[in-house]
Write the structure tokens for this entry.
Amino acid sequence: MDKKSGGLLRCRLGTAADRLILLLLLGAVCLFVLWPMACILLRSLGDGEGGFSLAAYTEVWQRYRGNLWNSVFVGVLSSLLCTLFSTAAAIFIATRKGWVKAVCMALLLITMVSPPFVSSLAYIQLYGRRGWITYRLLGLSWDPYNCWGVIWMQSISFVPLNALLLIGILTKLDTGSLQAARDLGAKPAAILRDIVLPLMGPGILVSLLLSFIRSLADYGTPVIIGGRFSTIASEIYLQLVGYSDLEKSSAMNMFLLLPAIAAFFLYRYLMGRSDKLAEGSRSRQGRLELSLSRCGAAGIIIIAVSLLFFLMMVLQYGCIFLSGFLKSTKGVYSFTLRNWEELWRLDTATMVRSVVYALIVSLAGTLFAMLFAYYMERRKVPFHSFFDCLATLPYMLPGTCFGIGYILAFNHEPLKLTGTAVIVLANMLFKQLPTATKICSASLTQVPLALERSARDLGGGQLAVLRDVILPSLRPAFLSCFVYNFSSSMTTAGAIIFLINPGKKLAVFKLFDAVYTGDYAVASLIASVIIVIVLAVEGLAYLITWKGGKRRVS
Amino acid sequence: MYLELSHLKKSFGEKTVVRDLSLSLERGELLCILGSSGCGKTTTLNMIGGFLAPDGGRVLLDGEDITAIPPERRPVTTVFQSYGLFPHMTVLQNVLYGLKFQRIRRGEAREKGLRYLDMVGLSDYAGAYIHEISGGQQQRVALARALIVEPKLCLLDEPFSNLDAALRTRMRQELKTLQRELGMTMVFVTHDQEEALILADRMAIMEEGRLVQYDSPLAIYHHPANAFVADFLGLEDLEWRRDGALLKVIRRDTKEEA
Amino acid sequence: MKKLTALLLVLAMVFALAACGTTTDNNSGNNAVNNTADNTNDTAGNEGENETPSLSGTMKVVATSESYVTLFDKFTEETGVTVELLSMSSGEVLSKLRAEGGTPSADLWFGGGIDAFMSAKEDGLLEQVNFDASADLAAEYKDSENYWFSKGITIVGFLLNNTLMNELSLTAPASWSDLLDESYAGEIIMSNPAVSGTNYAVVNALLQTMGEEEGWNYFNGLNSNIAYYAKRGSDPSNKVISDEYAIGITYIDGTIEALLEDYDVTIVYPEDGIPWVPEGVAVFKNAENVDAAKYFVEWLFSNDENLQLLAEIDQKTSVKAIKPTMEGIELGYDTGILMTEDLSLFGSERENILAQFETLMGDKAADE
């Protein structure tokens, strides 16, 4: 009797805790996403003097329709090109083994860390009007400052994340399907065309849509290499930095959300359909057994495109690393350690603070994303598609706007957070939440429903399911989520400039400063140091989870 | 002999999985390779199908040495344990897939596909996707897909292991009938004694990579080669009755089943 | 950190000296050194220091660069107020201010084009700072109601990439009107005047000098030679030194002069007039540490020693023009070569001018 009531009590407590967690999650999303967004919306409807006005919208519609079209144009082409690169690179890596695979994976991981602005500057250095490659090597007189430069640059820089996503799908392909096709007489080219590519379909779609939205929100690339070409995102930046016109830039944001939200719902619809396709596949394999060299034209294209991509990445990051040690005197380059010495004397407090902030955001953000994905995907709480869409909004906005939204939302009591570390941390966390949640959801679909049911069947409450089944089985997602969060936090741009407190600078901020004063060498060095730190921390995280995993198994 | 395996060997690293396996089979016969898991039966099947290259020995089919021919050009098809159906294609598209690589006009191929679907009782499901049909139906799609290309040899790797008992019994009958009608030569791998005894024209019993006994089911039943075979088949408890030439029901009263 | 800054400062000054040598050669005709430092009564300016208010806490500063650390270190030494410095462009500051809606997260605004300061005053975001020494400051460089002051003047000129000029066989432009020459098409880069206070000064000053109609005709003509309008103020000089464009319309200060050492570039001071823009200093209204910030303004402008340190950091002599009573520094240029600008039109016309300019730029973009 006693035992029974104790169990009942525990069960009740568990349910209460479960409710509490859910409430906290939804509350946080409302506070840190919905409220700032609402502030932006309100501001866009203001007339600057506290009244209501649609003037900003009419003006934006009349004057910046062209920019919206530019955004969509660049978005479509960038996502197509990026997906082509990602697909080729993913297939290429999945069919390799040994050191080639190791080197390519390492390259993807390095290039996942993309310090703001520096990549674009390296791009100019390599492919500019006087670029090392375009002018000095090939003798071309080409102008990169136009929409094609933006498209090219965006496509390349979005590849690493997409390629890793696609590799994940490829390693989970049903071996049976591939074997069966081969058995029925399909040559490698036919297997690639009929089986591999169609089965990658959902992943390819995800890559397309994510890159499209990312391209819409990207302002850094068009600002630096767009020349006279401007998108909505770069125009928003200009409105903020040049005209300080909050009403207009807020209204532009709302316009930018139109194609972004449309793309998001398309994504949800297509994902819902493709989930069913994945149900049949069970067996897994480490390597895709497919000889690309025997795949005919398609195979050659895949090899060529991925080699081109890896070559460009090696050049770009090589250029960043090298620039830190080069000094140009009247057009003659010489080797120098001067910048390096300068870097050592930069205050270490900034670096340490960056790492600490990034660690906090990565751990908290990863846990948040896991829980959020669980409640949205599995529990299907009421209004889950609304909340899911809401949590995705920060991904669709240029970072600068999300930052302005935070200032608008948190500059008054009782919600006064401006000037504190909390606002910076929250901004990073929620800016990265959409991608982190997607990583966790993808992993969650691999956890059989039966596992969850059996845990409940054996007497575990919702909380026990979460603790004993869901979180442990998200271990692989934890690592990728952590890696993503950490590298994004270390390289976060945009929002931070408006939120940072003078006393609490971050490493990226030093980077901005160096870029702004035109000191590319120092900027490159800071970027290199950030990349090395990120890789080191990620390596450590990998070792810890890997060891932990091993201990569990034995 | 139609199919001849001579001195097949395969090892993975230190572990020898198949040791010096030789056997032969007549056209139109169904061979069952029976053994407990890990005995090397699936490895043998993969060597016949071309998915594994043997370390030694040869595979001869219809007088031709096919040992070095890759699976896509081997006149052999396989029904996989997990079926390996293409989730992004309809039932009919799955069945027709192998015909793409033969010189057959589309219309003709479609007609043939529908005929084979009819044969396995799935005429109504031609347009359905794989996730929309049941496990037994998926099994039949896999079978039709393997048979439609009219291979010289069809391999089946524990095809019924994912089905429930009742369905398994029915599928056995259907497979046997189909095999007879088409005169198809088949190699069937299973660890289920009952299944092997019902289906097989010839039965090969393997243990630890070795072929222990190779004969007709009846002969094995009457004269198990050694204590292992006798024990493995559970012959002491076997009760059976004859119905024409076919074994219909095998009753086994085994204690370990529970 | 301090040592490094000091070292850099010395280095920069050496560069600046060398650079000055070259520039005086270029413009020897115009560079009559102004020796009229007749007002020797500097004690008046120092009176304010006697009544140091009790100050505490930290003062948060948004500045155009972090190089002002030594100046603020001196302030900390003398007052005990710790200073936290953050570099931000004036446009970013203004956006942030507007978003904060009267609860600024910084106390002092140090540097940046004066147009942003004028807008901020209009929006009521600045604090009035009255102090005795303000009477010594030249009236044309400060707000009449003491809402903002100038810490120096930035002038605008051309930066030429000699290698590219030779390669393209271009002759060096000597004046604003030279820039209209068709041979420069696609080789000139300037910043969007909305983003860059100095390039806004170019537009405003030329419009004032040439008059509305002729002025806009000029910019229409210039527009067809401009490759693109950069969205960051430092882009023109950066693009010129990295061999991307032959001619940059850019602010000219010590950092630009220092470039002459490492790069094959030339600075040109247009002979038909140099546009200029004061760099503002102001205190944010409702700031947490308003007192410290207000005192800083007083401290800076009342003591010539402090102004001199500032002049050294900026590598500019223009403080002399701002505070004519100042001793120990001579104006490095003749005020006559500067364009005549009515600063009062800077703020009031800004919106209008930028809107027209946007249309002008947009037409070019649409052609492509």
